[in-house]
């Protein structure tokens, strides 16, 4: 229960920061974002390098991106991101590097726990790992000082890669 409340608090803080940046007085005015057909949105991520860019990760649809502070949204599945290495309807976690604007990882929520990597800002993706017995990924992080150090947590395992996702060690 405490984890759920923590996640909801983080989600609320991220969303209010996004709306505060749009100049809405006191962040008290909310508008329907018109995503169209997705379920819940458990993850909202501000781009680390572009102030107007925001990613919204739904639970049952492809991730969405807005380049104008949430005024208009496009599905990553419609802007060229889908290929053989990326399953956009199964994203459990999504992260962007804090030092390289174009480096992103997406973790699928299937039982194979696959990890896909983009080096061009999400336009194309390549699957870099399958975790097999990890039983689906839940969260991912990139070391703030080293883009090659990546961490993945699943239901039962915590793993680390020091080579950008090619090789993994259980922690």
Please describe what this structure looks like.
The strands form three sheets. Strands 1-2-3-4 form a four-stranded antiparallel β-sheet. Strands 5-6-7-8 form a four-stranded antiparallel β-sheet, with no helix packed on it. Residues 19-25 and 78-85 have low confidence and may be disordered. Helix content is 11%, strand content 32%. It is globular, with a radius of gyration of 16 Å. A hairpin with a 7-residue loop joins strand 3 (64-66) and strand 4. The chain has one helix and twelve strands. By secondary structure, it is mostly beta strands.
User: Globular, elongated, flat, extended or rod-shaped: what is the shape?
Assistant: globular
Strand percentage lies at: 25-35%
The major β-sheet equals:
4 strands, antiparallel
Question: Which series of helices and strands comes N to C?
Answer: HEEEEEEEEEEEE
Taking pLDDT < 50 over at least 5 consecutive residues as the criterion, the unreliable ranges are: 19-25, 78-85
Q: In whole angstroms, how far apart are the ends?
A: 25 Å
Report mean pLDDT, rounded to a whole number.
73
- State the share of residues found in helices, binned by percent: 10-25%
Question: Based on helices, strands and strand pairing, what is the structural class?
Answer: mainly beta
């Amino acid at each position: 229960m405490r984890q759920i409340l923590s996640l909801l608090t983080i989600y609320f803080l991220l969303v209010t920061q996004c709306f505060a940046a749009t100049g809405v007085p006191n962040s008290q005015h909310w508008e329907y974002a018109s995503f169209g057909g997705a379920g819940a949105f458990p993850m909202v991520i501000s781009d680390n390098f572009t102030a107007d860019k925001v990613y919204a990760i739904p639970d049952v649809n492809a991730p969405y991106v807005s380049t104008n502070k949430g005024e208009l949204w496009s599905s990553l599945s419609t802007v060229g991101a889908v290929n053989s290495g990326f399953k956009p309807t199964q994203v459990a976690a999504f992260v962007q590097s804090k030092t390289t604007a174009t480096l992103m990882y997406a973790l699928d929520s299937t039982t194979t726990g696959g990890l896909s990597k983009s080096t061009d800002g999400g336009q194309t993706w390549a699957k870099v790992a399958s975790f097999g017995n990890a039983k689906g990924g839940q969260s991912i992080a990139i070391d703030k000082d080293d883009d090659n150090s990546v961490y993945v947590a699943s239901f039962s395992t915590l793993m680390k890669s020091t080579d950008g996702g090619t090789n993994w060690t259980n922690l």
